[in-house]
Amino acid sequence: MHELSLAQGILQVALKAARQGGAERIMTVYVKTGAFSGVVPSYLDECFTLMSKGTPAEGATLEVEEVPVVVRCLDCEQESQIDRADACCPNCGSSQIRMVHGRECFVDRIEAE
Q: Which of 55, 57, 86, 90 could pair with 26 in a Cys bridge, judged by C-beta atoms 3.0 to 4.6 Å apart?
């Protein structure tokens, strides 16, 4: 379950940002994950809840937003959002595509006080 290590990393980033901002308590952590990242949001939330116990993030809400898959066509050079099952450029039909977005997982922002 890679969600456990992701939750640990997310917690470290959030705690560092809170310390740097002089906050004592983290209220919400906003995370973006790509559709191809393999992250299961409910598992990530459970792991974050466990990892944050006893920290300034204990009780914080984890808001996970899925980033759509965006590809760049190597033939027509257009960037397009596609469904996970698509393997062709929606503009020209070429199968020569490269993923630009869809595998990421990062802390977008935090709310703290």
A: 57
pTM (2 d.p.): 0.87
Tell me the sheet residues that pair with 31.
Answer: 64, 107
CA 111 to chain centre: 16
Whose CA is closest to 47, among 3, 9, 15, 11? 3
Beta bridge partners of 63: 30
The answer to whether residue 1 scores a pLDDT higher than 90 is no
Mean pLDDT on 92-106: 94
Please give the C-alpha separations between residue 56 and each of 6, 24, 26, 68, in angstroms, as whole numbers.
18, 6, 6, 31
CA 71/CA 33 separation, integer angstroms = 16
Task: Quickly tell me which residue has 């590809």 as its tokens.
Answer: 71
